[in-house]
Amino acid sequence: FIRGGYGLGVGRGKEEQQSLPPPFPYSIDLSPTAAAAAAKNSKKVSKLVIRHLEDEDITKILPEVVREFGALIPPSSSTTPKQPGDELATKIENYLFSLTVLIGLTQRVVRREKGYSATNAACPDHNVICLVEQTPINNDDNNNEQQQQQQSYSEKIVGIAELSWQPPNPNGNAPPFVLPYFMKTLISRYGPSRDESSLKKEPVGYVSNVLVWKTRRGRGYGRVLMAALEGIANMWGCDDVRLHVDANEYSGRIARGLNWNLGYEGVPDRGTSKNKEVGYNWMGPSMANQGLYLVDGVPLLYLRKSLRDE
After folding, report:
1. Do β-strands 26-29 and 47-52 pair in parallel, antiparallel, or remain unpaired?
2. Which of 43, 206, 264, 296 has the fewest CB atoms inside 10 Å of its own CB, making it the most exposed?
3. Are 176 and 164 in contact (CB under 8 A)?
4. What phi and psi, each to the nearest 5 degrees, are found at residue 64?
5. Distance CA 90, CA 93 (A)
6. Exposed, middle or buried: residue 103 (CB in 10 Å: 0-12, 13-18, 19+)?
7. Could you give phi then psi for residue 41, rounded to 5 degrees?
């Protein structure tokens, strides 16, 4: 239901004016068994809520995002003696990275609001969603219907993910800052590293920044976030969605397994549109067909999932 577009049907694409926003907040009631499994203490999570990231959420999730994506790195266990200025350099790096994340998330909230505004012709773009656990504040078991309706909940964000329009570029991630849509269109049409498997030279639905808090992993929350993004992509009229995932045998194992189980397949590297040179075929057909690319010096897999019957 969620993956298919929240029961609202499939959109007609970016050209459709005044696209309807997804029906957020979208609540998922957990069964008593699932709720008990989702909590290790006496406080049981009774609902999961999918909603948009809002301005007031950014500062709440910032430490977790920065910690996961590279700035708040724990002290190295290396025996190499620290050099003068190392601590200061690390603090500066952390500050600049945090500032980049803060500005980037703020831009994404603004772009999403403009995209769904009836007074703005811009297409919906950069939807950052949150997965929120709702826990009853009063945990006393009570079947009184009136008291259940008046039940209050505490909320905790436990995951985020993003869907945006991006150029079909296997050799590049989504940039940290939001690009104007016309620039994305130009890059899609004339960029030297565009995906040759894309018949239409225009931006495609792109999944990024999928993150479940470490204390909440192993509960299927990643699947919920991916289903929510695919539902939005269906509402946008996307024929497919793309993403990059860590190709490292160890650090990317779980994310790769999730994406493959959800039906994502590698986009083979067939070289750039200019020289048609084959990229990673020298590593063997298996690796080449998995969609391996070197993005900013990091090996990543470029995966695609069709949202239409082929």
Report:
1. antiparallel
2. 296
3. no
4. -65, -40
5. 5
6. middle
7. -120, -170
Confidence grade of residue 75 (pLDDT, cut at 50, 70, 90): low
Of 273, 309, 301, which Cα lies nearest the Cα of 197?
Answer: 273
Type of residue numbered 38: A
Span 231-280, pLDDT tens digits: 999 999 899 999 999 998 888 999 999 999 999 999 887 655 444 454 55
Q: Are 203 and 165 in contact (CB under 8 A)?
A: yes
Please state whether beta strands 298-306 and 240-246 pair in parallel, antiparallel, or not at all (unpaired). antiparallel
Q: Which residue has the higher pLDDT, 284 or 190?
A: 190
The Cα 249–Cα 51 span in angstroms is 33
Q: Cα(303)–Cα(256) distance, rounded to whole angstroms? A: 10
CA distances from 281 to 12, 66, 247 (A): 37, 35, 16
Joined tokens for residue 308: 């239409």
Task: Give the integer Cα–Cα distance in Å for 73 and 34.
Answer: 34
Model's pTM, two decimal places?
Answer: 0.83
Q: Report residue 186 as tokens.
A: 């130009």
Which tokens sit at 108? 């994404």
Token pair of 14 as six digits: 């970016």
